[in-house]
């Protein structure tokens, strides 16, 4: 399966720029949230890590075979998420083929995403990554793990993952709201130092995802 993803990616790997995508899903949740987040993260990554990602994200549906064209898929929202059996199978094949899913809880996704990811990987549970995991020590070091960006329920931020054969295939940023920190400053009026922490962690996730496929 990994060879399939590499073959599908060849036109993108050989061209000037990679593309990343936001995941469109069913169930009524606002998959389209954080409209300025990914363009700002891409700009930060390109400027600070000498990346060459296309400046705007694509939109891809869970069940679409086009998902295999992207090494990194971003998923966000506030509410319900529903995967059909065919969508769950497509997402599973994508992740087992070397793809990377970053689920960023914008607040309210936790119970739904845990339920739906069980359709994708019934044999696995989310586990918290230790603070010495490479995802926290790419270009930027986060010795205390994922940073807290927005306060929701007075819970500590967590970097959770689904591991397949020891490899992170899905990263779930929980109780932090990284995407809000990536947005234009005018959207949430976050202090610049908070926005920079969010962007640096996002850049680490992208770098880790790109190095994994």
UniProtKB/TrEMBL annotation:
Signal peptide residues on this chain, from the entry's feature table: 1-16
Listed Pfam families: DUF4159 (PF13709)
Gene3D superfamilies, alphabetized: Domain of unknown function DUF4159
Name under which the protein is recorded: DUF4159 domain-containing protein
Alphabetized UniProt keyword annotations: Signal
Organism annotation: Leadbetterella byssophila (strain DSM 17132 / JCM 16389 / KACC 11308 / NBRC 106382 / 4M15)
Sequence ranges assigned to domain DUF4159 in this UniProt record: 19-210
UniProt entry tagged with the keyword Transferase: no
């Amino acid at each position: 399966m990994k060879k399939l993803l590499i073959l599908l990616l060849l036109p993108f790997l050989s061209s000037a720029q990679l593309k990343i995508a936001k995941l469109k899903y069913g169930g009524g949740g606002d998959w389209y949230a954080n409209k300025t987040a990914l363009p700002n993260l891409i700009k930060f990554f390109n400027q600070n890590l000498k990346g060459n990602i296309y400046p705007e994200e694509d939109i891809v549906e869970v069940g679409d075979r086009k998902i295999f064209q992207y090494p990194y898929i971003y998923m966000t929202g506030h509410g319900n998420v529903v995967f059909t059996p065919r969508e769950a199978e497509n997402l599973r094949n994508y992740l087992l083929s070397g793809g990377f899913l970053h689920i960023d809880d914008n607040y309210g996704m936790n119970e739904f995403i845990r339920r739906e990811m069980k359709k994708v990987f019934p044999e696995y549970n989310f586990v918290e990554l230790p603070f010495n995991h490479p995802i926290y020590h790419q270009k930027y070091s986060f010795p205390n793990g994922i940073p807290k960006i927005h306060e929701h329920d007075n819970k500590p931020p967590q970097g959770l993952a689904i591991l397949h054969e020891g490899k992170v295939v899905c990263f779930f940023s929980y109780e932090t709201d990284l995407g809000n920190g990536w947005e234009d400053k005018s959207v949430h009026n976050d202090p610049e130092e908070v926005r920079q922490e969010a962007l640096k962690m996002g850049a680490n996730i992208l770098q880790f995802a790109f190095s994994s496929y």
